[in-house]
Specification:
This protein folds into two domains: 124 residues, Rossmann fold; 60 residues, no CATH class. Helices cover 48% and strands 13% of the residues. It has ten helices and seven strands. A five-stranded parallel sheet has the order 5-4-1-6-7, with helices on both faces. It is elongated.
Length: 202
Amino acid sequence: MPIKCVFFDFDEVVRSWKHEFDGLSDYSGIPLDAFVEIAFDPLRYESAIRGEVSGETLRAEIGLVLAECFSVENAESALEYWATRNGELVPEVLEIVRLCKERIPVALFTNASTTLNREIETLGLTGLFDHVVNTAEVGSIKPEPEIYKYALDLVGIEASEAYFTDDRPENIEAAVKLGWTGHLFDGDVVGLRSSLVKAGVL
């Protein structure tokens, strides 16, 4: 069956965080590796992308941990710096999103917190995607089968009509196992475009 919707992961596909925290250590006095370990602790992060806590609550909790490990001033500076970071959009991928949108619906399919809508607006992406699947609003995360079913039901298509690109192998493997067409995105935009051509989208 022809592809009827293209689903794009957000982080490290549509936007990149590669250099977004380069200046955090100088600004806050907290070593970057220590900040990353605390701020992106898997268990704490999962509670946010499952919608168990809000994005704002998550950052407040992280601030408390940072303050215990360093100082209140350091923690406040780190959170202030973080608040100004929204990631950097990948122009070449955005071009592909727009090309796909000219032909069929496109969707954002991401493990994200409750701050996603604000981030989309801040980055100027409002209205670009026909559908947005935010795991925090569903309570299931990739690569769990339930979130893929939710995405299909939201768009109103069958698995064989869905194309998905993501930077995590386990998320693509889950999609393919469920009958989707999947493409593992490793930063190769040419490869992504070629895959969409092969799938009959472009």
